[in-house]
Amino acid sequence: MASSSSSTPLPNGPLKIAIIGFGPFAQFLAKTFVKQGHILTATSRSDYSLLCSQLGITFFRDMDDLMEAGGQVILLCTSILSLGDVIRSIPMGRLRMPLLFVDVLSVKEYPRDLLLRVLPEESDVLCTHPMFGPESGKEGWNGLPLVYEKVRIRDHALCDNYLGIFQAEGCRMVEMSCQEHDEMAAKSQFLAHTFGRILAEMGIKPTPMDTKGFQALLQLRDNTTKDSFDLYCGLFVRNKFARQELDKLDLAFKAVREKLLERTKDVELH
Questions:
Q1: Organism's domain of life (predicted)?
Q2: Which residues have C-beta within 8 Å of that of residue 206, sequence separation ≥ 6?
């Protein structure tokens, strides 16, 4: 597996990328962006000026200053629940067109609709979901999927240059609609997080006789509860397909429970 430390600059030259929201996931992406030679600026609610200085990134405490510094790509790395407030806080009058707005949220229809509604018509929109993070991508991104939709793209060279960051790292590029992404995510990511949260609520613990299956459940619990409850809530609130999966889960549990109790009655009668 290729390590991100082997990154080389893209042939089309460095991009100027302004990151809004510099939490752990943004930091994870930024390290590879910098290694490829891209020029980064960032802003966030918390003060990451020292960390950014260590990474070679210019940090701005003020959103206006970030916009004044200019950039080709605005990368939105906020939480799902805070995206609306963050977008509306951007000083649109200071934007220097043309611009490519890119999000990395774990839901896709919600940011797509919001960006198309709020951003200036002149701005391009690319919705992405890197299906990996600091843990799964720590040895490199080779073979890991990047899901994306070119929502409103006129500067195709700029968009392709940005996507080239992930291609250069060996990512598996998966182009699909935001709706298709959310349908699949509700059946996979949301359910996985739901099971993990349920297991955490049950307080399951390792035992001296754990099976491989139970060890997998412990791993699922640990992996999902590392993420904030806000992320889990966002996967539900901002994905219209999640509620029906939650309802299906509820019905499935009741069906299994009823079958188990019915069989128990049959056994007891004999």
A1: Eukaryota
A2: 215, 218
Q: What is the pTM of this model?
A: 0.90
Q: Say whether pLDDT at 239 is over 90.
A: yes
Structure tokens that stand for 163 in this block: 């996507």
Gyration radius (Cα) of the chain, Å: 21
9-50: per-residue pLDDT in tens?
455 689 999 999 999 999 999 999 999 999 999 999 999 999
Question: At a CB cut-off of 8 Å and minimum separation 6, what does 153 contact?
Answer: 100, 124, 125, 126, 159
Cα dihedral 189, 191, 193, 199, rounded to 10, equals -150
In the chain the first and final C-alpha atoms are separated, in Å, by: 58
- DSSP assignment string, 8-66: ---TT---EEEEE--SHHHHHHHHHHHHTT-EEEEE-SS--HHHHHHHT-EE-SSHHHH
CA 123 vs CA 97, 126, 176, 195, 201: distances in Å: 7, 10, 21, 39, 44
Q: What is the DSSP letter of 1?
A: -
Cα-flanking dihedrals φ and ψ of residue 176, to 5°? -155, 160
User: Which domains, and CATH codes, for the chain?
Assistant: 4-176 (3.40.50.720), 188-269 (no CATH)
